[in-house]
Amino acid sequence: MSRAFRPIQAPPPPHDAPPRAAHPMYTDRDTVEEDLLKLVLTLVELLRQLIERQALRRVDAGDLTEEQDEELGATLLALHDRLADLCAQHGYTLEDLNLDLGPPGPLLPPRT
C-alpha cells in the first residue's frame, strides 16, 4: 500500500542543462477566482489519476468483480469527460493543469 502513494520523481536533468527554476507565483485581484479554479481543477485531476492507477492495480489483482470493474471504468471516464468540459468552459486544457514545480518537475505524471 505504501508504494501506491509514493511520490513520483522527475528524471534528473541532463548534466549540461542548468536546473530549472519554478515559475514565479503571480497574484492579481482580478484573476484570483480563475487561479483558484485552476488549482482546484488541478487537484481534482491529480486525484482522478491516483484513483485510476489504484483501480488498475485492483483490476490486475482480480479484486473487483466484472460489474464493479465496468462501473468503476464508466465513473472514471465520466469524471475525465466532466473535468475536460470544465476546463474547456474556462479556456484551459487538461495539459494546462500540470503545474511546473521547478526542480522536482511537473506535478502530474505523464499520461500513458
Shape: flat
Count of helix runs? 2
Main sheet?
Answer: none
Structural class: mainly alpha
Proportion of residues in helical segments? 40-55%
Low-confidence stretches: none
The span between the termini is 22 Å
Number of strands: 0
Mean pLDDT over all positions: 78
Overall radius of gyration:
17 Å
Give the topology string: H per helix, E per strand.
HH
Strand content: under 5%
Attribute tags:
112 residues; mainly alpha; 2 helices
Offer a quick outline of the entry:
The chain is mainly alpha-helical and 112 residues long.
What would you say this structure looks like, in words?
The chain has 112 residues and is an all-alpha fold. The chain has two helices and no strands. Helix 1 (32-61) packs antiparallel against helix 2 (66-89).
Secondary structure: elements and pairs:
Layout: H1 32-61, H2 66-89
Helix pairs in contact: 1-2
